[in-house]
Amino acid sequence: MYPTDFDYHRPESVSDAVKLLKENPEAKVLAGGHSLLPVMKLRLAMPTALIDITRLSELSGVREDGDAVVIGANTTYSELMASDVIKQKLPFLVDAADQVGDVQVRNVGTIGGACAHCDPAADFPAIVLALDAEIKTVGSSGEQTHKASDFFVDMFTPRLEPDEVITEIRLPNVADIASATYQKFAHPASGYAIVGVAGVRTSGGDVRLTVTGSVPITTRLTAAEGEISGKDLNEANIKAAADKAGEGLDFVGDIHASDQYRAHLTRVFTRRALEKLAG
Ligand SMILES: Cc1cc2nc3c(=O)[nH]c(=O)nc-3n(C[C@H](O)[C@H](O)[C@H](O)COP(=O)(O)OP(=O)(O)OC[C@H]3O[C@@H](n4cnc5c(N)ncnc54)[C@H](O)[C@@H]3O)c2cc1C
Predict the structure, then answer these.
(1) CA of 118 to the centre of ligand 1 (A)
(2) 201 lines ligand 1 (CB under 6 A)
(3) Using 50, 70 and 90 to split pLDDT, how confident is the model at 229?
(4) Closest of 154, 275, 264, 263 to residue 207, by C-alpha
(5) Which residue puts its alpha carbon closest to atom 50 of ligand 1?
(6) Per-residue pLDDT reduced to its tens digit, 200-214
(7) I want to staple 101 with a disulfide (CB 3.0 to 4.6 A). Which of 80, 146, 150, 191 is the partner?
C-alpha cells in the first residue's frame, strides 16, 4: 500500500526541526524510516508532513562525557558497533546491536528512532532501561532530560510531545558496570525479540534486569532483581532469581508465541543473562 500524501521538510538544525514540528502539529520526525515508513504504508500513521532529521550531524555519533557515554539520537546500529568508545567502554552493545534485524536495518535504523518508536519487541528500549539511561529531548518549551524508567510509557507511546526531538541517550556511570549482557530469542524472519532480556551488574553487586518482547512495554524484572542483587551469581541463586522473572507481569500472546510460552522464555533468558553476568 502507498502512504497518504505528505509534505517533506529537511531542516538545517534541531531548532529548525522543532520549529517545523510546532508549525505542523500532524507532522512526524523521520530518522531511519525503518519503523515509520512501514506504518505509513499500512496507513496506521498518516502524518501530513515528514521532518527529515537524518542529515543533522549534531545528532550523530558516540562520545564520552565524564563518567557517561553519550549516543546521539541519529546514531545507527552500525555506527554504534563501529564506535571505539563503545568497543572500549560497553563492548556488549556491539553484540546487542548486531542482533538487530539484518544489515540493512542496522545500517539505517537509529537508536533515537528505536527509543521514540517504543515498539514492544524492540531491543534498545530494554537495553537503555537496563543501563539506567537518560533520554534528552528538545522541544518548543526547551530541553528536557527523562530517566529511561519514565520515558517508555506504553506500547508505541514514549514520553515525547509532538514538537519534541530526542537529541541524545546518555548512559551514566559506565565505569561502575562490572558486566552487562543482552540475551534474545529472535523472531526468525524479522529479528524482533520474541523475548529479550538485558542485564547489568554494578561493581557493588546490584543487578538490573529488563525484558522486551514478552510484555506490552519494556520493563524491569523487579522480583528477579530483588532476589539476586548483592548475592553471589552462583547456580542456585541464579535459578532462584530466574524463577521469579516476570512475577507480577502480564505477558502478551500472538500468532508467534503464546503468553505462557513468552513467560517461560522470560525465565529462561533471565537465567542466561545472569549466567553471562556471572562470566
Ligand atoms: C525488517 C526489519 C527488521 C527489524 N528488526 C528489528 C529488530 O530485530 N530489533 C529492533 O529493535 N528493531 C528492529 N527493526 C526496527 C528498526 O530497528 C527501526 O529502524 C528502529 O526501531 C527505528 O529507528 P528509525 O531510525 O528507523 O526510526 P523511524 O522509522 O524514522 O522513526 C520511528 C518513530 O520514531 C520517531 N523518531 C525517530 N527519531 C526521532 C527522534 N530523534 N526524535 C523524536 N522522534 C523520533 C519517528 O517520528 C517515528 O514515530 C526492524 C525493522 C525492519 C524494517
Answers:
(1) 9
(2) no
(3) very high
(4) 275
(5) 101
(6) 999 999 999 999 999
(7) 191
Classify burial at 43, counting beta carbons within 10 Å of its beta carbon; exposed 0-12, middle 13-18, buried 19 or more: exposed
Give the pLDDT confidence of 166-220 residue by residue, as tens digits. 999 999 999 999 999 999 999 999 899 999 999 999 999 999 999 999 999 999 9
Q: Which atom of ligand 1 is nearest to the CA of 109?
A: 19
Closest atom of ligand 1 relative to the 166 alpha carbon: 42
- Of 11, 119, 104, residue with least CA distance to 56: 11
| Ligand 1 in reach of 73 Cβ (< 6 A) | yes
Query: Could you give all domains of the chain from N- to C-terminal order, each with its CATH number?
Result: 7-52 (3.30.43.10), 57-171 (3.30.465.10), 175-278 (3.30.390.50)
pLDDT range class, residue 1, cuts 50, 70, 90: confident
Does residue 210 contact residue 198 with C-beta atoms inside 8 Å? yes
Closest ligand 1 atom to 77 CA: 17
Q: Are 166 and 175 in contact (CB under 8 A)?
A: no
Q: What does the pLDDT average to over 232-261?
A: 96
Protein residue with least CA distance to atom 21, ligand 1: 114
* 54 C-beta closer than 6 A to ligand 1: no
Residue 240: helix, strand or coil by DSSP? helix
Mean pLDDT, the chain, rounded, equals 97
Sheet with 193-202: strands ordered across: 177-186, 193-202, 207-212, 219-220
